[in-house]
Design brief:
2 copies of one chain form a homodimer. By secondary structure, the first copy, chain A, is α/β, with parallel strands linked by helices. The first copy, chain A, contains 14 helices and 12 strands. Chain A binds a DNA duplex through helix 2 and helix 4.
DNA sequence: CTTAGCGGATCAAAGGTTTTCATCGAGGAG
DNA sequence: CTCCTCGATGAAAACCTTTGATCCGCTAAG
């Protein structure tokens, strides 16, 4: 029967009820081997009887670990968070961390103030580790975090030296090759590319994939690609520019689904039929977008849920001081065929 | 100069350096009035010199407060989190909580397991309070949370009795009236409504607003409204059903922008021009949607950022044991005109 | 001159857990 | 029968902060 006494039971209470000392009770809770079966059972019984919950603060005080990790999103433009990709990452993080019973402390970092706050927070020892999403070039946050004596796992490659950093990346380059090869296999001859902003490494990797699959030199790249800034509107504009520059184009690989949606609008307005006149492949395979364009969008899938899951597993290992075989992991991408190519 | 000693400085160190006792140093940090100006200055100097950061665990242990609040999203269907609305709420929450220096612990609650985990967590005293987003009918999570001796502020009206509950709601009913009156003022005679799922109170409130603005009885409601389930696809289907049932309709008030996007597609396919033949008003004013439909969507704006901000302010007051004048607050909605009506 | 009052500082306890070290008892070896 | 070993347990220290009780040195009132 649950005691409805207002004060929460303490380990002392549990020990008393089980007829053992506080030390033994603690050992049971922490699954120490040096405890007799009888004691173990008695303590467990007392725990459930009293509805005992360890006091996190007290535990943290002595163990010097908090049982929480920070999840940092660095993004200078707040509106980018309307991107469904962001929601997906958060959801995946929440789930994966909950599964291992770790608190998720979410921090969104936009301004310099936010950076300072994040720094204080991380340096203050309020978390045991961090997951960092910082895709942009020369992000100050990365430099800050790097200096801290704190286990960190990055999503994708942060800008700068990767030495000793733990990260989980999607195979952006491989995905881009996949997409481009697919277009080539359809017999397309004039393939162009709408890239993401080149201050993000994922965009660069995708561009590089396109470049190598097409065997392009820098001049070719300059002619056949256009930056769409990872926005829908940017996708529209980039597509217009490419149509003007390469009127005979018959296929386009677009570095994100959102931009691809914009590009499709432009192609429609220009009277080009998809996929008859122009084949289109996107990237992200975000179903909420890809399934609702007309026609539905063929796209490269990167499994964000998996990425975050692997990041969490990786971080947990670091927290447990286990050795990790590979500091930097690469996740495969696959092509999902719909009607646009 | 920062001491690069690996161990973090403690209050004891600060006190020693300032030439006062630990107690005095503590009072300075907590802005107690009973401290001399000299002591205050000496302590502050020591704090900055050492880069001292209070140990959260130790503080939590003695004060019995954690400096963290939980943010709970209860949603049986995980995919709903792809809804941009969700990202917006999270972003607003992160910002508002960071501004008052409170940790945000995010929990997504889908399954019964998740509920149990949330219960353990909240009952375990790991947070000082909670923000709860649980729009659905008879959500078990609400009953669970209600029983806990924990300050909680709800987003919108949770199902069931509202006695003594703290909540911040948008004026859904008022917004629906606004939308409907606007359509009437345009001279429209046959106005119909695509509602949200009627197991969400926000959907019911919007339906009620429509009902009262149109002076409908239940029979009228049954004929002129259709449930679109707050999804794009649902919006399409509901619109089809309404077109079949009321072929002469000349306006529609749709209870969410996402559904409105679907409804617009259906109207296009049916050859009805918007707004000439059918005027359309949405709800949410989610720019990423409303500005990209064709034509751009007139919509009722509910300011989610503001809602969350007010929720946080409200919760903070509860945490400080301040009295709150109004337990239940209602935020106004406004009509944003674009081209669809 | 004594004493009450007061501002300001210190002392010490409390808060709940983990963990080291010592103790205790039983069982095996000599 | 005694000595050792070893496994299980308990006592107590340590983690760092807040806070009520206490104390000290002065001034103002009686």
């Amino acid at each position: 029967m649950l005691v409805s006494n207002h004060a929460r039971p303490t380990l002392e209470d549990v020990a008393a009820r089980a007829g053992v000392s506080r030390a033994t009770a603690s050992r049971v809770l922490n699954a120490s081997p040096r405890v007799s079966p009888e004691a173990l059972e008695a303590v467990n019984a007392a725990v459930t009887a009293l509805g005992y919950q360890p006091n996190r603060a007290a535990r943290a005080l002595v163990t010097r670990r908090t049982g929480a990790v920070a999840v940092l999103f660095s993004e200078p433009e707040p509106k980018i968070f309307d991107d469904p990709h962001f929601a997906r990452l958060i959801r995946a993080g929440a789930r994966a961390l909950a599964d291992v019973d770790v608190q998720m402390v979410l921090m969104l970092v936009h301004s310099l103030d936010d950076q300072a706050r994040a720094h204080r927070f991380l340096a203050g020892g309020h978390v045991d580790g961090a997951l960092v999403f910082a895709p942009h070039r020369n992000d100050e946050l990365v430099s800050i975090v790097k200096k801290l004596p704190l286990p960190v796992v990055y999503a994708g490659k942060p800008w700068g030296s990767l030495r000793g950093m733990h990260l989980v990346d999607n195979d952006n380059e491989g995905g881009a090759v996949l997409a481009t090869e697919h277009l080539k296999s359809l017999g397309r001859k004039k393939i162009v590319h709408v890239s993401g902003p080149l201050d993000e490494l994922s965009a660069i990797d995708r561009l590089n994939g396109f470049k190598s699959a097409m065997s392009l030199d820098d001049k070719g790249v300059a002619r056949l690609t256009e930056d769409g800034g990872f926005t829908r509107e940017g996708g529209r504009k980039a597509m217009s520019a490419l149509l003007a520059r390469v009127p005979s184009l018959d296929a386009v690989f677009v570095a994100s689904d959102l931009m691809a949606a914009g590009a499709l609008e432009t192609l429609n307005e220009a009277g080009r039929r998809v996929p008859e006149d122009v084949a289109v492949v996107g990237f992200d395979d975000h179903v909420a977008i890809a399934e609702h364009t007309s026609p539905p969008l063929t796209s490269v899938r990167q499994d964000s849920d998996e990425q975050v899951k692997v990041m969490v597993e990786h971080l947990v290992k670091l927290l447990r001081d286990e050795t990790v075989k590979k500091k930097q992991q690469m996740l495969p991408t696959v092509l999902v065929r719909r009607e646009s190519a």
